[in-house]
Design a protein that fits this description.
The structure is a homohexamer of 328-residue chains. The first copy, chain A, is an alpha+beta fold. Helix content of chain A is 40%, strand content 18%. The first copy, chain A, is built from 11 helices and 7 strands. In chain A, the strands form 2 sheets. A 5-stranded mixed beta barrel of chain A has the order 1-2-3-5-4. A two-stranded antiparallel sheet of chain A has the order 6-7. In chain A, helix 10 packs parallel to helix 11. In chain A, 43% of the residues are buried. Chains in contact: A-B, A-C, A-D, A-E, B-C, B-E, B-F, C-D, C-F, D-E, D-F, E-F.
């Protein structure tokens, strides 16, 4: 949207406020959302009954127009009425991956197929056959804000790491490929219970107090116990221990919430690929989200401790290419 | 070598010392090297003239035997005489890559071939056509101790990073591939002047006081100036700036000697791949170098702040595999 | 033991080495242990068959004498012969608490008795009725070296924290006492599987790669699952979450291996009491272990980043007391 | 107060501002305080003479009403006139402990009574008999914002630490109880001169430039000198040194302003109890101050580096209790 | 300027914004600058054509008046019209040193005169004879905000460090004075290309991605190459290396962007003098810029991690002096 | 001393040990000191009565010779007998400044002479007239090991800082010169009681537990109290506060034991000059103490986190000087 456009759409209401102008007139100030983001909106000449009729956490059909307010886009509401939640698809009001989740999931399962170790195969089956868990995984974001913060983000990020691993495993043949494949699949799986995606992405109490690393370890234990029951003997403890270690250490440093530092080659491998994909998203997103004109840099990004230069994609006016024949 | 073996070989002498036993007898204590490492050796019943005849930094033909001393292998010399330096190949006394350096170099040049940008191609040609520099690069280790600390190590490590990049570039199409290829090639090139590999790997004065990051930037400037002279106009400043930035930021953190943090996607990409390959070498080497029996862990490694578990390569007695058909 | 004493005792052999003097005579150098500590011992005029007869990890009956070697006590062995492991009590050769473990355990159970919440009571019962676990807990040390590093140390330390909590709970009535009691009992319980106490205290592979914090959380999950099965409905998730949080956060800082920082009053309470008891042990032990004469300070203690002053227990010659009547 | 209430009260004026609306009308914006906190207030249709009549740092009698402004309570003033400072009790306009200061002080003195060491008793007497100092101590807060930031806060906090120590001393009989009692009493005493409590709590210049730790040490020296004069010989230097050390080290870490780390058991003991009581206040206060509904967590607290979960006091719907008979 | 003054002046326009009041009237909000700073200004009853006529980055002649808005000075514009850039001196709209730049430059050259080493003299000549570089140096600030952030600031700061060095060199005769003189002159020279001073001070892309330390090293290399060409042999490599080291290490710590720590006495010397002069400016400026009345302290300064006490210049009412004759 | 020299001198005995060779012969191992340092010495064919006759902490007259032992100089004692302590000057056996202490002290007093402020002059007089304190100051080292670690080191270092200040004060006329002069004199004065210099430099108990910063503040208070008594009114509190602040903050960072960070310009000034002089000593000493040949660098110095390059004093073979006429 740009300033001066007419609006005639359904939005999710995140916040509302009834205000008085200095002249004593009432107006409503509220925050409206759809899957592309959120906007501040004002409705002048409001009444208390209009105000009361706006459902926070619910939906409204709005008519109005956009305008520029101190460089930020805002909306002026001419009229609005509640809209039944049954008639909307919640996903339309939440940021969502632009890829096909089912297709990504299928590719992720393909990545697991080469796993040879039998107990590991049984374990992975337990995860994949847990419908509730899989549904939650498919819905989960990869983070609140840092990277892939949208529905389907967890699957998208995990698949990216899987693709990286698939391509690099042949270069490090001493790595235990079974362990890497299972580790990639499981490293962030606790995120399915760390965040909720109702009408906003937010941490669950358990996410805040326990965290996805420990939740992942508990899920892993649960599935290993189920395998043990199936095969009538304990799940191989060493295998379990190594998978636990990969989950615990994948943040790579204590200050990022890993209670153990990587201590097997496979844990280092996953840690770096995980980090690489996150940073690729963060830098690309920072550049795309940065306002078009003006500075050659994005704003300062706390998580990267720097601003990002926006134009490394082209080498400038000198971008004359030559046929890539023999170089030397 | 194991304790109790007979020795009849040529060694490089690193240190020597003339000592007196409590009974007044003289003996020689010295450190001998070949490309596999170094060993402490003693020669009992020595004389001053024997001692004087042992050339530090030179070579000796030694006869004797090995023995265990407090858990460490040592050597007892029965006889030794100087050996002419002309008759040895210095490389036989220095740790050296077990790969073919020329072949690796050729593959590295292949990695550069797809570069399209003309000034970048000219720049890379300047590097590759500088015979002295190329000779130094081929000889250089990748580090004193941390990773690939042997002759040819720089080429081996750089090629590894190139292979990683080659495989991952298709997954991040928004990256500037020309910049990545040139950046990978150049990121550590200053190491060719940071260390010397005479009869030992050691920092040059310049390596210690200036460091390979800045040396690399200076080399880059020199070659860009040469291109400018060739084309009769300045080397494109933006291209130069981005390559400088990649070299400067590739350690990824101030405390590791990078004066700038990565601020373009390509710099992050190279930083993580560089780091990944270094860690893969470090963990693998730590496991291989660890004494066979006893603990399941290596000793504590300061650079990784942990001990490495040695047996993640196999999942234990439960390693029964099944045919990797359809998993789910 | 002091220098010059005769020795006629059974010891555990930790290490042995066969050495040659410069004159070519063989001697044995070995490390011997009993529950009070370990000592370096030499046996001159040894033979290879004597050496082979000394069982590492087994026991020997030694005759000899002690002597001072560079300020350290050492032993000279005059004669030694293997001693059957069946005839010794392993605990006699391992450092062990000087308190009665069963009595401490009983007091610890008393501490749990006031817990009112029914699911919590059921949970605690599951722990206490797990014979193998309880046996391991009673045997476990509280740490490798830092504090209470001896058999029974975990129970001794946990009981100390319980006593602190028992006395302070009345002062902070807003704390959830049930949660505190259960949390104190459980905070370090994973240590029962983190270390082994065979003939030495050492980390298990799982201890090193997974750690007692995560092991504790898994044990907790296992027992909560068992309660769920017993009561036919899920264990109350909020209760479980808060106990998990207490275990996870009890080290109080990321760099000490806590993946979550304390975020409920009860977690802070347990963190400080745990820390207080550890420091009380460390300072007291440092003072007791410090060599009697010479400096008024212990050696530098890395874990406290200081030396400890040994004589704060008395206020010096001026220690004249007066009857403690009304002060002001 | 909640929105829509009528107001007819005396307030302390902290700030005032004369503003013009876009229509050119004048209005006054000011901050009013009482002991429960402060509020922003506006007076529309003001004149310059009204504005000039409002005394910053003085008192006004206000009539008006409260309203909600962007989720924050504000006040609209209908009329106000200056109120004579003589007619108010300053303490009514400053946050003050809800406990009886004299009673707390008396209990604190009881805590000191068991001190046996004569010079220490004389020293404590000097403190307690210094009327000006005692008056300042009773008035002082324990901190600007962190914990117990109100009149009487220093006594309340010190007494809390004393109660903790009283209960825990029997558990660590190797501690020097005299030193602990005196140390608890003195550890924060410099705060009496670090902050002022006129019509607001603020640092004195000396508090900012010298700090309560050093001020405390100087006060201690002054009183020890007075004892020396009384007894005709120097105050026992070791006793003085140990008390100085306790004051200096009680923050437990350099970065919190302790120039020395704890190096006697008594200093550790006081450091942990001090910290525990501060954290108990901070967590409890954070929960009580957090707006009732909405999130289960408080806002992020910088000093604890986390948000606090507000509902650990109850274990949820499952809170069924059972009689606390024999548990196992 | 103070509130209530009439304005009739030319300003640089930094930002502008067209806004609507709630009544639908348009007004302009903009930021105006001259060399003393910047101010927010409003023009009520504006039209779109008035708004369009205001040139951002250009100049306007403004009539209006100042007023106080929430304690900040603002401006109300009554009328304004564009002003031709040709008629203004850009320097009048940028903060500029209050010293004579040419005179400072001359003194700086005097500081270099005692240099004896011939190659060093030739090198310095190359710098001084590079007209473009010298022009840029004279214009450059010493920093964006931290210290001497104005036109001429680089020369002013460098001269200050030179004066410090000139006075202290006699006290440390073991220092290599030639190296110190050249090092002082060169340490910050890269700042001439790190920032631009068009109508505002801002980082260049190269400044942000490469930084003044590396730019300085490259400039040094360029001039050393020029000397080499002149003398027909390489510039003495040791001299070059030491100068590079001084530039690289002059920030004194990795976290401040130095890729090498000082490792020669001369580098320490320059690091401390550089730092001293920066801090002298920062503290003095903080005191001068602090609003006159109220607190005895400036606001918190992040770069110094403290507030600065404003009145250490006088010792208070007790400032009675006595003739400074013999003191003891 | 170099290997092979004859020895016939008096030494201080720091340690002794009676050892047995494998053949059963006794020998004495001891550490002997004079003001130039310490050496390890052995006496073969010793008896117990010889051993008993050697006084630790006392003096012996030794005859013998030096020899090289693993690259370290050692001594072989042929004969030795006790030497009466009365006949030696203790200072001959402790490292001592090579400057004249009285002359340095006199110059330091000259530095104080320009102080104008009367109370400050009175205060300084109290210090200078305290004979015991002055005697201790003159004897004190500036540190245990870091810089100027010898008798007279405190005066030497303080005078150096005074000379720096004397020369730089004219460049920063806004500094309060009286405060700087007094602050320089006092900043380290607590070191006179922090260390003892009996037959070795070591921390006093008070030095270890309280530290020179706090001791200095207490000394200052004592002298200010004395002035107050003399003038019949309190010592000006602002002056006292600023001096306290300078002492407290002169280490410049919490982690170096300063409980307050510099917050007045004068405190920054003293902090940097103090640091500069310490580093000048450390680098110079490191270079002088480094073994002559071999590496161009000293060993790694923990306190500087680097090795020091030894040859920055000369610019190498290219050291051709030219007459320093007009440079440009």
């Amino acid at each position: 949207m740009s300033p001066g456009e007419a609006v005639d759409e359904v939005f999710l209401v995140r916040e509302k406020d009834l205000r008085t102008t200095r002249k004593g007139d009432l107006y409503v100030l509220c925050t409206l959302c759809d899957r592309t983001g959120h906007i501040t909106a004002r409705m002048w000449q409001a009444t208390e009954s209009i105000y009361n009729g706006i459902p926070v956490g619910g939906f409204v059909h709005v008519r109005g127009r956009t305008e520029d307010y101190r460089g930020t886009l805002q909306m002026v509401i001419d009229g609005c009425r509640p809209y039944p939640a049954e008639k909307v698809d919640l996903a339309d009001f939440m940021p969502t991956t632009d890829k096909d989740i089912e297709q990504m999931w299928a590719e992720l399962l393909e990545f697991l197929r080469p796993v040879k170790n039998r107990p590991l195969r049984l374990l992975l089956r337990k995860f994949v056959q847990d419908r509730d868990l899989v549904a939650a995984v498919k819905r989960a974001p990869a983070a609140m804000e840092m990277h892939h913060p949208f529905i389907g983000g967890l699957v998208e990020h995990t698949l990216n790491v899987a693709r990286l691993a698939e391509r690099l495993l042949p270069l490090y043949p001493h790595l235990n490929a079974d362990l890497v494949r299972a580790g990639v699949f499981l490293h962030d799986i606790g995120k399915a219970a760390e965040m909720t995606t109702g009408t906003t992405i937010s941490y669950t109490d358990r996410g805040e107090l326990v965290g996805h690393i420990t939740i992942g370890v508990i899920l892993l234990q649960e599935k290993a116990d189920a395998v043990a029951e199936e095969i009538g003997r304990p799940f191989p403890p060493k295998t379990l221990m190594l998978l636990q270690h990969i989950i615990l250490s994948h943040h790579g440093a204590y200050e990022y919430g890993s209670p153990k530092l990587p201590a097997i080659p496979e844990a280092f491998f996953i840690h770096y690929l995980d980090n690489l994909d996150a940073k690729m998203w963060m830098t690309r997103n920072a550049i795309e989200e940065a306002p078009e004109p003006g500075s050659n840099f994005t704003t300062y990004l706390r998580q990267l401790d720097t601003r990002i230069y926006k134009h490394s994609d082209r080498l400038g006016e000198e971008d004359d290419e030559e046929p890539t024949g023999r170089l030397f």
